[in-house]
Design a protein that fits this description.
Elements (H helix, E strand, L loop, with lengths): L2 H10 L6 H11 L5 E2 H11 L5 H13 L3 E6 L2 E6 L6 E5 L5 E4 L22 E4 L2 H7 L5
């Protein structure tokens, strides 16, 4: 989604474009992949030191409800990213916590074997060690 599409979605749903809301949108547009609520809150606080965590939560919830943001849970963290028309899958490093997008859908490999089931949505989360963390722990883990 572009910023223009996002702002249009907010207006179409009869919500105001507040400075905090616009900053959250800019933060999300400048980020590849997912951000946690805490990460978003810390970035918003730099421009609006008085902002409450509750305000950030409310804005994220609103943006999710109007399909501007996608929400997923990674471990114990609720994570957000700009909504995409296609679903995506992630790989998460269990040492540093960095999240990477998996640019393929593993389900595509077996979709033709699921004749008796209509899939409407799915999520795939793969955990392991990123390239940098694998070097620091030595050896490989299976």
């Amino acid at each position: 989604m572009t910023k223009e599409e996002i702002l249009n979605a907010i207006k179409t749903n009869n919500f105001k474009i507040t400075p905090q809301r616009e900053l959250i949108i800019n933060i999300m547009l400048d980020t590849q992949g997912y951000l946690s609520v805490k990460e978003i809150y810390e970035k918003v606080k730099k421009s609006f030191p008085q902002v409450s965590l509750d305000t950030v939560y409310r804005n994220l919830s609103l943006l999710k409800d109007i399909n501007v943001l996608s929400e997923t849970t990674i471990g114990n963290n609720i994570m957000y990213e700009i909504h995409k028309d296609m679903h995506d899958h992630i790989m998460k490093c269990i040492k540093c916590g960095k999240v990477y997008e998996l640019n393929i859908c593993p389900l595509d490999l077996c979709i033709n074997k699921l004749d008796d089931f209509e899939i409407v949505d799915h999520k795939i989360e793969i955990t392991g060690y990123c390239k940098n963390c694998k070097k620091t722990i030595g050896g490989s883990h299976s």
